[in-house]
């Protein structure tokens, strides 16, 4: 959860072992409202190379379990360390990458170098014209997602008046409650887990079967025919290059008898 002066709060739903940012995702919540959130849990399993693009060797990083968002955050920290020798905020799990040491910037370091380097990195990373960024962050092979559906309504003045009487000092009127308080109810729509799996439906076996079927349809050839044809070509090339022919093979034993 992150508080924003423009509209209130930004709330992101994510797994407790994974890192999430309120910049690319999240819901905006404003004071004076009540929100109802229906959550559903989804697990996505991706295929590693050569069929897929995920990297099974990446498990953890300095922000916890490996995910694209945490990889991008670590890439940002690496750029700041290289340019300024410090990062905005020290990562929560630096022991996952013991060969890298991160140090938080002081206010002076952040004002003189860190903020400028961070803005330059954001501009460079968000440049859609670049075909590839400096951050090598393939998707994770196993991803846990919380999908949320949200509905909201304004708090009634009657509720705010009753709430103001029970809140600590500082909430003296219903207007104070409407300007500073929001309510959010989070419920799971189901206790079941949805799974999405990447499955290779067309592999090399399917490809060879299709090629053999096409050759058999148009040429009347089978796999044994192709092997025999290849053997014939190889033997023909060897005879042509090495001077082997049927006549030399027939006369070779006679020549041996004459010598005896």
Structural description of this entry:
The longest helix has 20 residues. The C terminus is likely disordered. The protein has 260 residues and is of the alpha+beta class. It is 39% helix and 21% strand. Helix 3 crosses helix 4. The strands form 3 sheets. A 3-stranded antiparallel sheet has the order 1-2-3, with no helix packed on it. The protein has a 3-stranded mixed sheet with strand order 7-4-8, with no helix packed on it. A two-stranded antiparallel ribbon has the order 5-6.
User: Strand arrangement, largest sheet?
Assistant: 1-2-3
Mean pLDDT: 81
**Terminal CA distance:** 101 Å
Net shape: elongated
The structure class reads: alpha+beta
Q: Please report the number of helical segments.
A: 7
Weakly predicted, low-confidence segments: 247-260
CA radius of gyration: 34 Å
- Report the sheet with the most strands, covering strand number, pairing sense and barrel closure: 3 strands, antiparallel
- Estimate the helix proportion, in percent: 25-40%
H/E element string? EEEEEEHHEHHEHHH
Strand content: 15-25%
Number of separate strands: 8
Question: Could you provide a short overview of the structure?
Answer:
The protein has 260 residues and is of the alpha+beta class.
What are the main properties of this structure?
alpha+beta; elongated; disordered C terminus
What order do the helices and strands come in, and which of them pair?
Elements: E1 2-4, E2 8-11, E3 27-29, E4 33-45, E5 60-61, E6 64-65, H1 68-84, H2 107-125, E7 142-154, H3 157-164, H4 174-180, E8 183-197, H5 204-219, H6 223-242, H7 246-259
Parallel strand pairs: 4-8
Antiparallel strand pairs: 1-2, 2-3, 4-7, 5-6
